[in-house]
Amino acid sequence: MRTNTDLALSGIAKIKPWDFETRQDKRKDLNERLDTLESSLKFYQDNYKGLEKEHFLEQINEEIELVNQKLSLIPESKTITQLMKEGDEGVEDSIMLILNDLRFFFMVDNMITDRGLQSTTMLIISSYGSLTLEEVAMCMQQAKSGEFGQLFNRLDGAIIIGWLKTYTTQKMERLKEKHQVAQAQSKVGVNPYRSAEVVSISDKLNEAYAAIELERVKK
Which of 31, 64, 95, 218 is the most buried (most CB within 10 A)? Predict the structure, then answer.
């Protein structure tokens, strides 16, 4: 996003917030699976003495490679606060470009000034740092589509911040709904985030623990 904001804006125009959030959930799930696989790999390397050790290590490495391939297809999106903490100097410019794009879209008499864009940008960084640059851009895209209501011959910082407030509220509602669905699925024994790869590795890890325990008992 911040490496080529103009190009990214045209791509983001095709993405819906819930699709973006689903992708980020998928990336989080893949990262958690990668952590599990790497822990399993270390366990087999350091502790497992069974005859199938090399076979298991080969399988786990193959799965790690597969997960990394899937991760490479989902770009990492950090929050504004994370980028600022990392010293990313392009954050402010990226937000300015996103907001300035509004001036080319809306035709109103009372248009936000350059100084207004600057102060609004700083307010977004300080008050909406939990959002990503992509989310700020998606919010503005929704505004251009009229999803936050009609403009009445005025575009200023207060209106833009109001859009972000509405976007954030809707995002929280989506997250709450997802959480409620996940809780309901958990109660009936369904885990939508548990994939076949995770199950297979879990089974192998249990087998390894059992084998080690059996060896300990024999001694």
Answer: 95
> What's CA 104's distance to the chain center, in Å?
29
pTM reported for the whole predicted model: 0.77
Segment 67-118, tens digit of pLDDT: 999 999 998 999 999 999 999 989 999 999 999 999 999 989 999 999 999 9
> Hey, what long-range contacts does 24-33 have (CB within 8 A, 24 or more apart)?
24/74, 24/77, 25/178, 26/74, 27/71, 27/74, 27/76, 29/193, 29/195, 30/67, 30/70, 30/71, 30/74, 31/71, 33/67, 33/195, 33/197, 33/198
Burial (0-12, 13-18, 19+ Cβ within 10 Å), 91: buried
Burial class for 210, CB neighbours closer than 10 Å (0-12, 13-18, 19+): exposed
Report residue 19 as tokens.
Answer: 């699709």
* In the block, residue with structure tokens 């998606």: 138
Residue 196 has pLDDT above 50, yes or no: no
